């Protein structure tokens, strides 16, 4: 059985239905991984059922089937989300509804419902991803939907699908300039009403607390966290510490930001910067978090497109909303800095607190270290060195799979497993330091990044997520200590990340490819994505106003945008009206010539009614003027040649055209003032 | 008639309004979720619908419609008339629908580039007489169904509707038996008078021609004999023996058809109009036309 042949033999109804199901599947498929587990199979089964019915030419199921399935879907949605409202619940329900609607595809009216639901679902795909890939997939989906729609309006015979596809593609191409103008000029507004709570769900990234083992999931996540464009030379790789949440409150299991972190007291940070500044632009992928990741240390607020940023006493920058969309900001940082030199013991007390009853062995070790340390100013710094020395020489191993920790995670780290990754190192180190009386805290964020050789942007991935420690030393203030670098210096020094093990499939595909080629490929793809982000996703109101500035508006506002948009609409409509007027008059060039001659003669006072012929006009000229002057003679000659062109035309299209052109030229040169 | 900007109208359909509502929903979602890709989708879709509006309009604009003059019909029968559609342009014009205004019985056709197509529409004219043809509506929903583009055309050519022939008419009146009843002049010269002479008419038998006369004057003359006239059948309203004028006409119509079928010579006398005895298709049409307009 040859499939193409069979497809061509299908009745038209069947073919159209199958095509439509295919397109709907294409629209819905990218979302299914984000929706509840039952949604995909249910949708797939319904559409497969519908496809089979179409293939066999059987009748559609009764209303009871649809009603029953609908009830099942609503119940399942309620079970999954505890609500029918909200983004994910709504999307789930619409997906199932669309599938069920195909079961009652009878009248044209039903088909429209399917089409318009599909358009809506295309948009909901963008809730989950706005990547270049998603855009490409949805562009194909749009093409498919338009093709099906056009096909539905070709009722005669059995037009081939490619014909509809061509029409749809042509329309999309012609619509693209309209899209471009609207996209560039349609004023960007703030959200009209609050986002539903689950708008922020399902994105990976740094979290606001840390249970040891958290970042491991991020280490395997290769997706981009942010992109950095340095204005000047970038700092050394080992200085690329992007500061995220500072975790200082430890309850034995979980690290949290200190309670005081909610209170923003930048003045208490006591920050002094020196040395050269590093200016850069960050394009932060949406992470549904308020944090603005900046390099240590950033004394002044990053420039945001809207809203404002505040700095906590722990040097962390945060904006007053969440990054629900791609966010770009400009920051200036100073790699050389000092802060918190003059902290009072009362302020440092929270950074010494430990829950009682946890990690007894670590605390004992801390006491031992404390006893061995010299007294006085240098004690704290000596303790830090001792702990780091212990990490360096104690046979500790950096691994992404250290196994699960028990209740006393620091004890297990220091004495039993002696293995882990940044979280284990940082948390274990901080607990040890606090036990020894050194104020210490955990800082999370990103470390490192890699330069894309294609476009020069630095890419920071989720796998660059990192945790390190800060200790307070008398006279020096807070100092960054990265315990991980004692064991795995390359983790922070160069960009040789600990590569997570590849899946079997990835190995099979990429295993045989030249690694350099694969790397280049990824760099190019990344650069392309970056362009996409910079140009399309990051097109904000600020950029719109920049565009207006470039056009020549001095102090553009969003009213100017509307003005420009209206101006373009008016211009285009006028052009359209002009064109249609031209097309209306684009009758016969010969008739137009004759009409022009009539008009000129009647202006000169000669009666030239609309039905007069060229010869009649010539006769009237002769009667009125006696045919004496050469000018009148020329006019008569012109009129007679005009007549001859029509009724005794020359052979050949080109000579006809030539003569017509000649007559047109002469019409302008002749003197019609009779 | 060539369809131009002036004669082609366009309005969004219900599906078009639905599409508009969908676009609004998409726009709101894009604003609220700050989806730049959503904006792109919304605007591309909006662009497509604008283009579709233009495509729709251009699909009908420029077509020339002309009527193939319809044949007369008998009342009560379906009148078929052909409309010729001419596509003078290089592009295909798919999904054209034609119907009598208000009938909803659409005839669909595609029009290939530089070609013409013929579409047959039917209407049911009510009574006999000369009727204007009903208004024709040509429309297209192509390509997205969001806009309906249509034109209304009232063809100038009239439709002639004959009376409906009586279904079971009585036999033809016998010309001879009607003699003396006044209205028919079947045998005006039956008192043995010499045959009157009249100019030759086609179909006169050769033996009736007065050859001597012809030789004298050079004009062909026939003997208007009783014998010759006895085949002539005059039909008129009183002969129908009906009182209702329309029924009279129906019966006359049936008789005319019958006479024609039998190949008789017949004449028709209606108030204000006499159609002399003759036969043949042209004569039949003349008579039927007279009946239609009586």
UniProtKB/TrEMBL annotation, chain A:
Database matches in Gene3D superfamilies: 3.10.620.30
SUPFAM superfamilies found in the cross-reference section: Cysteine proteinases
Domain of life of the source: Bacteria
Listed name of the protein: Transglutaminase
Membrane-traversing stretches: 21-49, 69-99, 111-128, 134-156, 168-186, 561-582
Keywords linked to the UniProt accession: Membrane, Transmembrane, Transmembrane helix
Lineage of the species this protein comes from: Bacteria, Pseudomonadati, Pseudomonadota, Betaproteobacteria, Burkholderiales
Transglutaminase-like domain location: 414-485
Listed InterPro entries: Bact_TGase-like, Papain-like_cys_pep_sf, TgpA_N, Transglutaminase-like
Species for this entry: Rhodoferax fermentans
Signal sequence segment: none
